[in-house]
Each structure stands twice: as structure tokens, then as C-alpha cells.
Amino acid sequence: MAQTRDQIGLPFMKMHGAGNDFVVIDSRNDGPDVSAALVAALADRHRGVGFDQLAVISGAMHLTFYNSDGSTSGACGNATRCIADREMRLRGVDALELTTDRGTLYAHMVDDMPWINMGAPQLDWQDIPLAEAMDTLELPIEGSPVATGMGNPHCTFFVDDAEAIPLAQFGPRYEHHPLYPERTNVQVAHVVGPDHLRMRVWERGAGITLASGSSSCATAVAAHRRGMTGRRVRIDLDGGVLHVDWRDDGVWMTGPTAHVFDGVLTADWLATI
């Protein structure tokens, strides 16, 4: 007799992209109901597994993302890239379609590196969304940040020195700014050289993370709109380097990926949730 997940537990994968780490649950065959309690328990780095985001695979490569605080996110570029990398290698293909709450995303393997098309950036205030009509290139906030949507909202500050910003205090102040009714990811960035940025990130629902794919895309778009860089940009983050290319068909992004380990959440542990 086949054992059920109630008896054997719940398999998962641990991955990261430039230090931005994820738990991935493949529910294409026998998917669990992902409750807020399960997300919170999994996110606990002491009593669970720990992650910046949880990604659940369902259907024909549909990805659903949860932040470590249990809230959902419409996009997660690094998790998408990690999952696409693994799936393309398993299938022996160099192109793949995935879907998210934002829509269909396309992955291509180029020189053994997975590139993800994160779609066209959202530049109008109502699409990001912001609370009222305004110029998204220069928000009426101290520091004149840029607002960008990449399936989730972003607020990018260009500063003299990203390292000098006390991000643990700075990030939450703007994550909950009244101009962002759905909260926002917050980036601080400065120009290192031609088409080269240094960026640090505070993610809504997760806090400080070592990297963020959608934040990197938003920062590259904002820098080009401001005339600071071209469309293809290197971004140095706390956890590594990502490359972003804003093309006519969308914002493409690549960088390192790692499938760290596979595990099983035990039935006994799941029963405590």
C-alpha cells in the first residue's frame, strides 16, 4: 500500500540565487494546501527551515511565491531563475515557459547561465501601484526615489554610498510609506562605473536580503530612466552579482544559482502546525 504524505512527510528543495534563499515545494503531483501557518513555520530559521521566499510549483510550471512573513508576492526573479535552471537541466532543454501571478515568463539557457524574462516594467503610477497620480521617475519623498513595478512594487533611492545607509531602519520606513498601498521593496544604489551599480535591498515581507532579482530589474530600469546607465547593467549585491538587460521584449536577468539540498519535512513536525 502506498504511503501518504501524512505518513512520510513533505519533500522540499532548498535553493539560493546570489544568497537570496528559497524553499521550493513541487506540488505538481500531490500538492499540499499552503496555509499561512505552514509558511510561518517553514520560514522560522530556528524551528523550521528558513527562507526569504517560499516558491510552490503547481500545474504546468506555475509558480506561487510567499514572503517569510506569510504574505504573497507576484514575482520573485531569483527563485524563478533557480527553478527554471533546474527544470531545463532535468528536461535537457535550453528554453522554458513558466507562469506566475504576473503572467507567462520565459527562460533561456545561454552559455550555461539561465536568463529569465521578467516582463515589461510597470512605469505608470496606477500599475505599480501608487496611491495617487504622480511622476514615477521622481516621487515626492525625501531623496526623490523612482517607482517601478516588476509584478511587485519597488522604490529605488540613488545615493552617494549604498554601504552607508542604515538599511535596517531605512527599509521599513519606506516599505510602509502611504504612497505604496501594497507596501514596497526598497533599494538603495549608487553608480560604481559605466553600466555598473552597487545595490542593497529591503524586501517587503522579508526584510534585508542578500539579493533580489525583481529589485535588481527595477533598479536597472530606474537607473536607465534617470540617464545614469545604459540598458544592460551589472549589479553588485551583498550576496553576489546579477546582470540585467532591459530589452524591447522585457527585462532579462541572470546570475548564479544553487540547488543546495533536498529534504523532507517530517510528518511529526507537520502535525504540530
Gist?
The chain has 273 residues and is an alpha+beta fold. The protein contains six helices and 17 strands. The strands form two sheets. Strands 6, 7, 8, 9, 10, 11, 12, 13, 14, 15 and 16 form an eleven-stranded mixed sheet that branches.
Structural write-up:
This protein is an alpha+beta fold. It has 2 domains: 5-116 and 257-265, Diaminopimelate Epimerase, Chain A, domain 1, CATH 3.10.310.10; 121-252, Diaminopimelate Epimerase, Chain A, domain 1, CATH 3.10.310.10. Helix content is 19%, strand content 38%. Strands 6, 7, 8, 9, 10, 11, 12, 13, 14, 15 and 16 form an 11-stranded mixed beta sheet that branches. Strands 5-4-3-2-1-17 form a 6-stranded mixed beta sheet, with helices on both faces. The longest helix is centred in the N-terminal third of the chain and has 15 residues, at 77-91. The two termini are 26 Å apart. The relative contact order is 0.18. The mean pLDDT is 94.
Mean pLDDT: 94
| Beta-strand percentage range | 35-45%
Low-confidence stretches: none
Name given to the CATH homologous superfamily of the largest domain: Diaminopimelate Epimerase, Chain A, domain 1
Layout of secondary structure:
Layout: H1 5-8, E1 10-17, E2 20-26, H2 36-43, E3 53-58, E4 62-67, E5 72-73, H3 77-91, E6 95-100, E7 103-110, E8 113-117, E9 146-149, E10 153-158, H4 167-175, E11 185-193, E12 196-203, E13 207-209, H5 213-225, E14 232-237, E15 240-247, E16 250-254, E17 258-265, H6 267-270
Parallel strand pairs: 2-3, 10-11, 12-14
Antiparallel strand pairs: 1-2, 1-17, 3-4, 4-5, 6-7, 7-8, 8-16, 9-10, 11-12, 12-13, 14-15, 15-16
